[in-house]
Design goal:
- The structure is a single chain.
- The chain has 14 helices and 18 strands.
- By secondary structure, the protein is an alpha+beta fold.
- A 6-stranded antiparallel β-sheet has the order 3-2-1-6-5-4.
- Strand 9 and strand 10 form a beta hairpin.
Length: 594
């Protein structure tokens, strides 16, 4: 009992009541326990980390190889399709009867040259065949020889216009075929077929294989081995592995079997499978090195931790205790405490920064009330700016209702269009809108201008339905078309014509706005182009065009924007280009928030 009391006394005196020793003990405990735990579980962690890293690396390399193979297969498809774009091809296989011997010879020579052109297009092409369904004849180039058969009994059961892909396990190759249709009546008149060896994968497999113990295989969708790009002595049970693969969850691109890792990619609508087999010992080769390195790091860390804990506890404890007491005074709203800033080390820097923080707190407290009042004023102004547009819109609606009651339909229509325009401008909470919304707003604006100019102007608006869901910056079209009325038609005597075409061109949206207004001299046109492309502010017609051009470049890139063409007394044409992007594909930041 006496020993226990003495132990408790010394423990409280030298440990509990001493911040320096408590800090030393805490640092030792905090640093040593994780290091010891790391010692015990390092093997498991390193195995998991190495396995995850190797799996991720192999999946990435498989995806890259998949892209390379798909690109090569697409090249063969494009190469075969290019042969069909020939106006002599269809006549050569449909007009062989009742023609002179000379023409027959010329036609066959043409077919022979065309097939040899395809055959020699790539060293992995095994054969090229042209089938004529009309006279049941086919022409073939194989092993550098040209063959003609007058009896052809193959059934015409596939009339697809896309490429026909078929795997041939017996020859380790695949065939790529395209049907030939006569242009006049789209009648199926023949087929062009190309047989390609899977040997084109050799260079892809060499990059995919990072260790000679790994195996690269090409299989069909039944698990039959089609091709082994790199020879390997390892025996693999293909059918069992593929059976396991088919039972894996959808989206999984690897599985384990008998301590081996199987990575695969499906190609050509799952007709062929690229398989990589990695033994477990290859996957885990880095785990042993990590374990050995971990032990060395553990021993060094233990030694350094002991030394550093002693140094830190001596240098930090006392000034920290003094600083904590000053903090207690500050907690009681006593900001006049004296803090020692004479030290030049980190503790002195901490003391100086803490003193600066106290001074800033004083300033913030003094400014807090003023800031709160300013925020209230800003909220009131924001609320007032929201109320006024709604009030004006509702007033326009009341006016249109009164016009309708008095059977003033023209006034009703004009007021409604103006109200809809105002609601469109003021009710949007985002900078990007759907094209169909912008076009609807434009129709309201054009209606008002049509009423204003009457028969003195004709307007043609064409909108491709494919661009309805595309996105466009708010109020892009109206400012440009407004320039046509303001600068193009105001001083014109002849009847005005305004043409607006909005359509999808490849992966872009193209908007063409053309009028037959007064146009611009070349000097004015060049000056206008310069103002739009520069940062100079303008007070004339370029301010609206510059605003539109700047917003398009801001959202979609500097390669998009406005082009201007004009000729004095003849026309003005403005072309807007932007990428075709659907609103559903964009980040929520770029979509209207309703």
């Amino acid at each position: 009992m006496h020993i226990r009391s003495r132990f408790k006394h010394y423990f409280n005196k030298y440990i509990v009541e001493s911040m320096q020793r408590k800090l030393m003990g805490t640092l030792l405990l905090v640093m040593m326990v994780p290091l010891l735990i790391f010692m015990l579980i390092s093997t498991h962690i390193s195995r998991g980390a190495v396995e995850s890293s190797e799996i991720s690396s192999n999946l990435s390399r498989m995806e890259l190889s998949n892209s390379y193979i798909e690109e090569q297969l697409n090249w063969y498809n494009d190469f075969l399709f290019s042969a069909l774009v020939d106006d002599k091809l269809v006549p050569s296989i449909t007009t062989m009867d009742n023609i002179s011997a000379t023409n027959v010879f010329n036609t066959q020579s043409y077919i022979k040259d065309k097939l040899f052109g395809l055959y020699n297009g790539d060293e992995d092409i095994l054969s090229v065949k042209l089938v004529s369904y009309g006279d049941r004849r086919f022409y073939k180039v194989e092993n550098k020889d040209f063959y003609i058969e007058n009896e052809y009994d193959e059934a015409k059961n596939n009339e697809a216009k896309a490429a026909i892909f078929k795997v041939d396990p017996e020859t380790n190759s695949f065939t790529l075929a395209r049907n030939i249709y006569r242009f006049e009546d789209q009648k199926l008149v023949g087929k062009l077929e190309m047989q390609v060896s899977f040997s084109f994968m050799e260079h892809i497999a060499e990059k995919l294989q990072s260790n000679e113990q790994e195996s690269i295989l090409l299989l069909d969708n039944h698990g039959n081995q089609l091709y082994t790009p790199i020879e390997n002595d390892q025996s693999i049970k293909i059918s069992e592995d593929i059976s396991t693969k088919l039972n894996t969850p959808k989206g999984t691109k690897y599985f384990t079997k008998d301590k081996d890792y199987y990575f695969f990619q499906e190609l050509m609508n799952e007709q062929i499978i690229l398989l990589k087999v990695v033994p477990e010992e290859v996957m885990m080769v880095g785990a042993v090195y990590i374990g050995q390195t971990g032990i060395a790091i553990l021993l060094i860390s233990i030694f350094l931790t002991i030394i550093l804990s002693i140094i830190v506890s001596n240098q930090v404890a006392k000034p920290i205790v003094a600083l904590s007491r000053k903090m207690e005074h500050v907690e009681e709203n006593n900001f006049s405490v004296e803090i020692d800033t004479s030290r030049s080390d980190e503790i002195g820097h901490l003391n100086r920064k803490y003193k600066e923080m106290i001074n800033r707190i004083k300033e913030l407290i003094e400014k807090d009330y003023k800031r709160e009042m300013e925020n209230r004023d800003a909220q009131f102004l924001a609320l007032q700016s929201q109320i006024n547009p709604h009030f004006l819109f509702n007033t326009l609606q009341v006016i249109s209702g009164m016009a309708l009651k008095r059977n003033a339909k023209d006034i009703y229509a004009m007021t409604q269009k103006l109200a809809f325009m105002f609601r469109y401008i003021t009710n949007k909470r985002g900078d990007l809108v759907y094209m169909k919304e912008e076009v609807n707003h434009l129709n309201n604006y054009l209606y008002i201008q049509k009423v204003r100019f009457g028969d003195n102007i004709s307007i043609h608006l064409f909108v491709d339905e494919a661009v309805n869901e595309a996105i466009i910056p708010l109020l892009t079209l109206q400012p440009i078309i407004e320039n046509s009325f303001k600068h193009g038609f105001e001083s014109q005597i002849e009847k005005g014509h305004l043409k607006i075409d909005i359509q999808k061109v490849f992966d872009e949206v193209e908007i063409i706005i053309e009028d037959n207004g007064v146009g611009m001299p070349i000097q004015v046109l060049e000056k206008l182009r310069g103002k739009i492309s520069s940062n100079i502010e303008s007070q004339n017609r370029s301010i609206g065009l510059k605003n539109v051009d700047s917003r398009i470049k801001l959202y979609f890139g500097r390669e998009y924007g406005i082009e201007i063409f004009s000729k004095e007394s003849e026309y003005t044409k403005i072309i807007l280009r932007m990428p075709y992007q659907k609103g559903s594909e964009l980040n929520e930041y770029f979509i209207n928030r309703r």
